[in-house]
């Protein structure tokens, strides 16, 4: 065996880490506690010093003083099938994980689909088993956001709920994204543009159908008969069923805007099964920007929403709230962009 690196015989202290990194004790503490008020270069210097010295924070002792658990929760109000099948959720998780990397925080993921699950989880969270929580895929009747805010637990929502305005949230401009989709179809010469809207108890579903209607109205194409609107649950099967319904009502449809990529994939299957060509007969636009959109047949034009950036902003905002740092913007709205492919 080669020579072993020199390490102190005694347990290294916070002061020793600070001296090795060339920073103050408080800076080391902020890095360990996950503060966002530290530059990337300083954080790297501290992490290098921790590794060199073999420093291990005494979390048990620190938790007695700070009442911190070093755990944050990401709660998704969807089934496991949806969370693990749809790329949007994976993107958010990647963003959260990237943001907390190198901090003391550990992430745990919870999925709830029933009022019983919601009640148990609410009790667990308000009992301060975590330092803060991020809630994703909020439906209109979900009592958890209000419960956590009233309990004082630092909480950040992914998407603004339909029932109230939360203190801290990160969202995508769903209205603007839907307008991009419809404006693109209009520019392609489409005039009988249908939509497969998402759930109307979610802000994403509401924002996207409102964006569709406003763009259609501005183009002089809004059909008040509602024959060009069907509803899905953001899932592929619901998109297929909705497209079949639309085609039975209006066989002359020449385009469809689906409020999620999975619903767009389902719509494309229904269009092909009905003997129509994409985009010659019916053009299709989705909303997500999922990796699978580039591999569909034909490749799907889609409104790309920055899921990873959403997760990063949620985690960054939550860590700031936990640390008691000043937060300039508690509501972050991200701008989507249109990715044009062969489906239009």
Folded structure, characterized:
By secondary structure, this protein is an alpha/beta fold. It has three domains: 14-57, 434 Repressor (Amino-terminal Domain) (Orthogonal Bundle); 71-171 and 307-334, Response regulator (Rossmann fold); 174-304, Response regulator (Rossmann fold, 3-Layer(aba) Sandwich). Helix content is 44%, strand content 16%. The protein has helices at 14-21, 25-32, 40-53, 59-66, 80-85, 87-100, 115-126, 144-151, 174-187, 203-218, 236-249, 261-273, 307-323, and strands at 71-76, 106-111, 132-136, 155-158, 169-172, 193-197, 229-231, 255-258, 283-288, 301-304, 331-334, 337-339. The strands form two sheets. The protein has a six-stranded parallel beta sheet, with helices on both faces. Strands 7-6-8-9-10-12 form a six-stranded mixed beta sheet, with helices on both faces. The longest helix has 17 residues, at 307-323. It is elongated, with a radius of gyration of 24 Å.
C-alpha-based Rg, rounded: 24 Å
Q: What is the averaged pLDDT score?
A: 89
Q: Indicate the overall shape.
A: elongated
Q: Which CATH top level class of the largest domain fits?
A: Alpha Beta
The H-and-E topology, N to C, reads as HHHHEHHEHEHEEHEHEHEHEEHEE
Spatial strand arrangement across the major sheet:
2-1-3-4-5-11
Largest sheet: 6 strands, parallel
Estimate nothing, just give the exact number of structural domains.
3
Q: Total number of helical segments?
A: 13
The level of helicity is: 40-55%
Total beta strands: 12
Q: What is the CATH third-level topology name of the largest domain?
A: Rossmann fold
Derived from helix and strand composition plus strand pairing, the structural class reads: alpha/beta
